[in-house]
Amino acid sequence: MKTRIVGWAFFTAAMAASILLGWADVEKVQRVLAEIGSDSLLAEPPAREHRLTEADLNAYIALELRQKRPPGIQEMSVRLLGQGRLGTFMKIDPNQLGLKNAAGLKAWLSILMSGTQDLEFEGVLTSGQGKARYQIERVQLNGYPVPAALVEALLQSWGRSLEPPIDFSEPFDLPHPIQQIDIDPGQVTIHTGGPAG
């Protein structure tokens, strides 16, 4: 009985620590976003470097998914692989995705996929002087390789729903005052500062 109580106490403490650490990660991302948002109001914000870990980002993504419940996306996480490489895992239901102006894409997805699917993709983010480009290099659906055009079409549809819209097939403007984003193994560095474009 004593062993069971000690075990339960250890389990409860571990769960509490996990939740608190997760909230610390979320709060770190929220602080960075708030500072970038505040600097965006300045004509010439000071140069800063904001560093976030993979754990920080994934804790924040998990909270956003729980709170906003975007249609069709059940899970999402990222992997920061280094040299600009970014890996993304998503558990999606193609029939529920809120794709804008993409009736053809939704019909095509519903033919190929029914129910919940695991989508993984890797690409390279290059950025500098307030602009960025994301090029997808590898895509897997339920563990099987599929054409990169699948994710490119999803990104294009999602980009059209943003304000202002983003065309991910071309270099796009980063939100002011972000100048550059560096992806290293397990960590991203966001460089901000400089006049508005």
Notes on the protein architecture:
It is globular and about 50 Å long. A hairpin with a 2-residue loop joins β2 and β3. Strands 2, 3, 4, 5, 6 and 7 form a six-stranded antiparallel beta sheet that branches. α1 crosses α2. Helices cover 38% and strands 32% of the residues. By secondary structure, it is α+β, with helices and mostly antiparallel strands. The chain has four helices and nine strands. The protein starts with a helix and ends in a 5-residue tail after the last strand.
End-to-end separation in angstroms reads 67 Å
Quaternary assembly: single chain
Whole-number mean pLDDT: 79
Structural class determined from secondary elements: alpha+beta
Radius of gyration: 19 Å
List low-confidence stretches.
Answer: 1-21
* Strand element count: 9
Strand content: 25-35%
What is the tally of helical segments? Answer: 4
The largest pleated sheet is described as:
6 strands, antiparallel
Task: Provide key terms for this protein.
4 helices; globular; disordered N terminus; 3-stranded antiparallel β-sheet; single chain; 197 residues; 6-stranded antiparallel β-sheet; alpha+beta
Offer a concise description of the structure.
The protein has 197 residues and is of the alpha+beta class.
Write the layout of secondary structure elements.
Elements: H1 2-39, E1 48-53, H2 54-68, E2 73-82, E3 85-92, H3 103-112, E4 117-128, E5 131-141, E6 144-145, H4 149-160, E7 172-173, E8 178-184, E9 187-192
Antiparallel strand pairs: 1-9, 2-3, 3-4, 4-5, 5-6, 5-7, 8-9
